[in-house]
Amino acid sequence: QARGTPNWCASADSAERVRLRETERVLRKLDLSREQAEVVERLSHSLVEKLVDGPIAKVTAIIERTYQSAA
């Protein structure tokens, strides 16, 4: 990890906790088959990955390149 690179794990962990809590809340309210519930679960994972993991990886890469070019 480059010097000064923020620790994004806390943000990703927080997003995962929200995803899990909200997915469980919705699944309790809906009368879904196991297959349907799995689709909802996969959708929630996909959304978190696209909204959180992708941008975090991009920002981290930019920060690391900045520190490498400054070194």
Question: Would you count the extended β strands for me?
Answer: 0
Per DSSP, the total helix count is 2
Q: Which H/E pattern describes the elements?
A: HH
Which segments are poorly predicted (pLDDT under 50) over 5 or more consecutive residues? none
Estimate the helix proportion, in percent.
over 70%
**How widely separated are the two ends?**
14 Å
Radius of gyration: 17 Å
What's the story with the biggest beta sheet? Answer: none
The gross shape turns out to be elongated
Helix/strand/pairing category: mainly alpha
Query: What is the overall pLDDT average?
Result: 84
Residues in β-strands, percent: under 5%
Q: What does this protein structure show overall?
A:
The model has no long low-confidence stretch (mean pLDDT 84). The two termini are 14 Å apart. 82% of the residues lie in helices and 0% in strands. The protein has two helices and no strands. The protein has 71 residues and is mainly alpha-helical.
